[in-house]
Amino acid sequence: MFAAVLAGAVIVCASSRPADASLVLFDGNALFDSSLPSSATGTSGGSTNFRPSIGSSANHLSQQSWHFRIDGMHNRQFMFSESQGNPTTSGMFSSTGSYEWSGLAGGILDAKLTIELQDGRAPNEATLTQTMSLTNTSSSAFTISLFHYADINAGGAPSLNNANALNSNLLDISKGNEFVHWQGIGADAYDYQHFNRLFNKLTSPSIVNLSSPQSPLLAADFTGAFQWTLDIDPGDTVSVTSIISSNIVIPAPGAVLLLAGSALISSRRRRM
């Protein structure tokens, strides 16, 4: 009953936004609500609402954004936003939805972000799986740097979060008995900092590469990001996957490698 009432409230809220700027997903007791950043070069990210249990859990993801930079073309990062690429949405009010952009970077890049919400077996458990697919529509190969930024709140609290890297593709963010695992499958680098330093860095008018810190982040308002560096041939599509799980343990490294091989079968990493 509560879910139905909240769904109605979200529908009213969503209807006040541009139709192509928001996406609302439900699965069981879990909710995900997202709006795109308004500008590709602005200093405000899109707002998100990730609640593993509607009515009994706080927001575990208050902001996220995806950024890109094409080597040799750009001297800064650009956000996937509602201001460029004529974004459209699909899957509203289901468990899987998507954003699509066309003609980015001067008409050579198309993109699709697919988001799947899966409720967990117990209260306050849910998983958010996001797959960004990039298509080179030009006649020449290019190398692109892709970033997924997130403001994650373990237990729904925006402060006193502890974070550390379990491996180069898996971050653990915790507060008390609550935790969030965040996996950037096949990522080349990661970073985490206090709010809002990392977002300001990614939206600054300069080239940014993440540093993969080894020291934990303690008692912080956590923000983090993963970075992928990918080669895309003309006409090819490359996909990467980012998974955020609330109070659900991400598989051990061996299982992660198997998953990475399956999820990235269509992609080709940067040649060294």
Strand order of the largest sheet: 6-7-8-9-17-13-12-11-15
Helix content: 10-25%
User: Which class best fits the helix and strand makeup?
Assistant: mainly beta
The total tally of domains equals: 1
Order of helices and strands: HEEEEEEEHEEEEEEEHEEEH
CATH arch. level architecture: Distorted Sandwich
Which fold name fills CATH's third level, the topology? Beta-galactosidase, Chain A, domain 5
CATH class: Mainly Beta
User: CATH superfamily, called what?
Assistant: Glycoside hydrolase, family 65, N-terminal domain
List keywords for this structure.
mainly beta, eight-stranded antiparallel sheet, disordered C terminus, nine-stranded antiparallel sheet, 17 strands, 272 residues, single chain
